[in-house]
Amino acid sequence: MKTVTGLFDNYDDASNAVGELDATGIPHSDISIVANNADNWHDNDESRASDDAADGAGLGAVVGGAGGLLTGLGLMAIPGVGPVVAAGWLAATAVGAVGGAVVGGAAGGIVGALTDSGVPENDAHVYAEGVRRGGTLVTAKVDDQLVDEVERILGQTKSVNLEERRGQYRADGWTRFDADAENYASNEIGRDGARDVNRL
């Protein structure tokens, strides 16, 4: 299996991508979503408990419906990223890493979870920073015959162009994701949404 990842500045675009993955037949257990929640956009009253997400149960039977919306997202905090709403295997792995489990890669948390699943570490740092700055990360574990289709879905026109975003971050002096960094304040979140997105 291969892990395919997409970063979105807009949660609705990410949610639509998850709906497409579901329609393609990717099992819910192989899809994960992690979205920044520093500005409390997600209402906890309508979500399942965060331990459902930590157990990887947050995505079971929750993908689909009108517009491919996700329900049942769990609230949690990931060091360096801050408060997130998340569901699926990546969230469970990242929380396990934070809790002391050994996860591959040089860092624990979200970077370690991504690198453990086969995402190159330099890309994992950009993905983690993207979530830290207000983005939404969608990942899917897929069989080889579905890789091209899933790459098309997660590389759609509304996803972030990873190389361009890496260059923009570096131009601002960023070198890598820092799990010990202070969380962005809610008024600092979402600045990446104003940046150019991949419009093929």
UniProtKB/TrEMBL annotation:
Coiled coil: none annotated. Residues 6-70 form the General stress protein 17M-like domain. It comes from the Bacteria. InterPro entries: GSP17M-like_dom, Low_temp-induced_all0457. This is General stress protein. It holds the Pfam family YflT. It comes from Mesorhizobium newzealandense. The lineage of its organism: Bacteria, Pseudomonadati, Pseudomonadota, Alphaproteobacteria, Hyphomicrobiales.
